[in-house]
User: Which sequence fits this backbone?
């Protein structure tokens, strides 16, 4: 076994926890109470989850590079990889949109239009699509973990014998 085979299972739990925390906090902020602590618990764990997710994806791609290309579990592996990359895209897009929302020019434009929301989560026009992307991201996290579990527990992929 190479080091990436041992690193991947060790690092995957961090982005799972961070992305699910960010999703829960974001949805609570949008549909329960707009508390500043929930806003913080949305964006900071999401950013940290994105970083940890990149590490998990890189170690996972390295770990799977030694697997046979015609293995019977290749379909499950492809679903696992696709969902893992998908969650990085979804949460990365949310972080990017927040960054655009926070740019100084965007703030000036909103102030000139007579509307100035402190955060993307406060913008009524973004509420639905942000909520949908948070739910989609969480579903991709669950799909990634489910298929990763199928690979390990169902097929014994990269398990020491």
Assistant:
């Amino acid at each position: 076994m190479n080091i990436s085979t041992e690193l991947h299972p060790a690092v995957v739990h961090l982005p799972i926890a961070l992305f699910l925390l960010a999703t829960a906090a974001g949805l609570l902020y949008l549909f329960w109470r707009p508390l500043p602590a929930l806003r913080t618990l949305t964006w900071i764990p999401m950013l940290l989850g994105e970083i940890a997710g990149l590490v998990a994806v890189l170690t996972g791609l390295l770990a799977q590079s030694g697997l046979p290309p015609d293995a019977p579990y290749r379909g499950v592996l492809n679903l696992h990889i696709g969902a893992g990359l998908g969650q990085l895209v979804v949460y990365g897009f949310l972080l990017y949109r927040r960054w655009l929302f926070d740019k100084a020019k965007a703030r000036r434009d909103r102030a000139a239009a007579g509307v100035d929301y402190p955060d993307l989560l406060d913008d009524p026009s973004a509420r639905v699509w942000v909520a949908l992307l948070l739910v989609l991201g969480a579903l991709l996290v669950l799909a990634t973990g489910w298929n990763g579990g199928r690979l390990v527990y169902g097929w014994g992929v990269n398990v020491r014998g």
Observations:
- The mean pLDDT is 94.
- The radius of gyration is 18 Å.
